[in-house]
Amino acid sequence: MDRNEFAQSIIWRKFNGVNDSVGIIVNPRSGGDVRRAVAAAGRSTVEEKVSIVRRIVLGAMAVGVENFFVNYEPMQIVRRATETIRGIEINYVNDTMTFTEEDSTIAARRLNELGVPCAGVLGGDGTNRAVVKGWQNIPVIPVSTGTNNAFPAFIEPTVAGTSLGLVATGAVSLNDVSVVAKLIHVSGEDEISDIALIDAVAVNDPYVGSLELFDPKTMNMAILTQADPAAIGFSSVGGLLKPLTAIEDSALYIRFAPVGSGSDMTKIKAPTAPGHYDTIGVEKVTSLSFGEEIPVTGEVLLAFDGERKLRVPRGKTVTLSVRRDGPQVIDPAKAMSHGRHVMIDG
After folding, report:
1. Which residues of 20-46 are buried (b: 16+ CB within 10 A; e: fewer)?
2. How far is it, in rounded angstroms, from Cα 293 to Cα 287?
3. pTM to 2 decimal places
4. What span, in angstroms and rounded, lies between the C-alpha atoms of 242 and 288?
5. Which sign does the torsion angle of CA 332, 334, 335, 337 carry?
6. Cβ distance 100 to 307 under 8 Å?
7. CA dist 108 to 45, 140, 176, 289, Å?
8. Based on the domain organization, do 173 and 207 belong to the same domain?
9. Which of 60, 251, 291, 311 could make a disulfide contact with 65, Cβ separation 3.0–4.6 Å?
C-alpha cells in the first residue's frame, strides 16, 4: 500500500466504522485433506462452515457490530451465511484469488492495513499460520475447522463472535483478555525466512508434497511451542514426554530416533492423527529458552504446523528459535467475563 492508498484508507475507515468492525477469514478447504483417507479424521463441510460464520456474525451483532470485513473465497461461505441477515455490511477485502494458502495471508494483510480491530479465523494450524504470515500480531480467535488442531479452539461460534464484538467495540480491553502467542522463527541463507505457530519438524523425506502421514522412521527433530498430552499430532508427542502450555515462557526440543536404534532411546505411542497411533523413538527431550538457536543442517525437509514447506539442501543450515511475538489470542471466557456488563440492562 503506497502513501496515497494509505491516506485514502484512513479516510475510508473514519466514515465507515472500521474501528467497530470484526474481520472473518475462512479457509474453505480446511478439514478436508488426505487424512480423511489415510487416518480417521472427520470432515468439516462447507455447510458447517456456513453455520459457524452465521453464528459468529449473530454473536457480534448482539453487542453492536454491524460491519464485517471478510475474505472472498470460491465457496462463498460468508455470502451464504449472511444473505438473510439484515442490518449489517459485508465488505470483501480481496477481489482476486490464488486458490492457495496465500489467500489467507493476503486477507490478513488487508485487515491490518484497513485497521480492523480483530478477526475470527476458521481453519486449522496451517490456516492460522498463513494468516499470521500476513499479520503477525493479529488479535484473533481461531475457530477450529481443521485436522490436527493445537492452535485453534473448539468453541461455540456465537460466543466467539460476541467476544470479538466486545473487543472491536472497546467494551473490553484487548490486553486484558488476550495472550501473545509464541512463534517459531526460521532463518537462513538466501533470504530464507518462515514461521510456525505450534511445531517445526525436520524429516528425512524426499517429497515436499508427500500426502502420507509422517513416518516415525524419517522424523529427525521437532521444536514445539505447546505440548499437550490431550492434543493430536506433534503437540501430543511432546505432551506425553514433557507437557508445555501456551503461556509458559519456553519451548520444547525433541530429537527423534528410529525405534530400536539405541539403548538410550525412549519409546512412546502417540496419536499423530485422528484415529491413528504411531510408536515413536525419542533420544532427547529438553526445554528451550526464548531466543535460543537450534541449527538444522540439510539435507532435510522442514514441516511447519503439520505441512511440509521447506527443503534444506545438503550442506546448508537454517536456524530455528522461539519468541513470544505472535498473534494476540483472545480468550472468549475472559472477554465474556470482562464484558458481561454490556449484556445486562439495569
Report:
1. bbbbbbbbbbbbbbebeeebebeebeb
2. 12
3. 0.90
4. 12
5. positive
6. no
7. 23, 11, 23, 29
8. no
9. 60
pLDDT digits (tens, 9 = 90+) for 114-143: 999 999 999 999 999 999 999 999 999 999
The sign of the CA dihedral 201, 205, 206, 212 is negative
Q: Do 30 and 138 reside in the same domain of the chain?
A: yes
- Name the E strands within the chain: 21-26, 67-70, 89-92, 119-123, 139-144, 178-180, 183-188, 192-196, 199-203, 219-224, 251-256, 266-273, 276-288, 294-297, 300-304, 307-312, 317-323, 328-330
**How high does pLDDT run on average in the chain?**
89
CA 104 to chain centre: 11
CATH number at residue 154: 3.40.50.10330
Indicate whether 308 belongs to any domain: yes
Q: Whose grid coordinates read 473448539? A: 154
Separation CA 71–CA 132 (nearest Å): 15
Asked whether residue 149 is domain-assigned, the answer is yes
**Angle separating helix axes 125-134 and 102-114, nearest 10 degrees:** 50
Three-class SS of residue 147? coil
Amino acid at 61: M
Domain assignment of residue 288, given as a range: 183-323
CA–CA distances in Å: residue 75 to residues 95, 142, 337: 14, 20, 35
Instruction: Give how many domains the chain has, as a whole number.
Output: 2
126-156 burial by CB neighbour count: b if 16+ within 10 A, else e?
A: bbbbbbbbbbeebbbbbbbbbbbbbbbeebe
Same domain? 56 vs 112: yes
Cα separation, 135 vs 9, whole angstroms = 17
308-335: buried (b, 16+ CB within 10 Å) or exposed (e) per residue? Answer: bbbebeeebebebbbeeebbbbbbbeeb
At 110, the amino acid letter reads: R
For residue 286, give every residue at least 6 positions away whose Cβ sits within 8 Å of its Cβ, in sequence order, or none.
252, 253
pLDDT band per the 50, 70, 90 thresholds, residue 30 = confident
323: which 3 cell numbers?
519468541
